[in-house]
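Section 5.1 Outputs to date
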Amino acid sequence: MGAERILIIEDDAEIQEMIKYAFAPEGWKLSQAVNAEEGLEALRKDGADCVILDIMLPGMDGFKALKKIRADESLSGLPVIMCTARGEEADVVAGLELGADDYVVKPYSPRVLAARVRAALRRREERGAVDKSVWQYGKLKIDTEKHSCFLGDEALELFATEFAILAHFMSHPDIVFSRQKLITAVRGPDYPVTDRSVDVQILGLRKKLGAAGDMIETIRGVGYRFKTSGSSE
């Protein structure tokens, strides 16, 4: 942790500053919004790793904002911590049933709130390590559990080694792998292979990927990497 993006949706300027000051030692990247509409726009534009969401906001309240967040499939795993002066049991239950990950009642200790954020980020990271099986960049999508790969709506027929190589690339984007490290990752150590055979696998994979084939970049004298910049649209 340390470079996570935290979005704070809170209309009270003093509380905004208090949170900002308390979170400074964490090294998180903070963004702030004073109403739900502004916060949702920031979320769509820049994303976030955790949202601190007040309920009593001008205009759209926090409950409605949470509904919109949870209605977006791409944000289904985003941790949201409700932070409000409304501490009645019914409000707590309503927030949790709508999909809030945690609920902090004002007045609260900023250190406690920071601890709640750390816990939420940790749970998200652990879930990702266990559950992540689908990766998508541009139109290219791979699902390791279903053993399927699509370019847009077109299903790609990949051989087992080709599929394993692509899955390793897409789950480790922008990292350069030597040919030996690549084969070790998908076949295990001491697997007999020549540089030429790896190149043939990559060549075949690129052809099957069509327009997305150039996402697999040759790093001269080193090996290959899966580049996410300029992903196939």
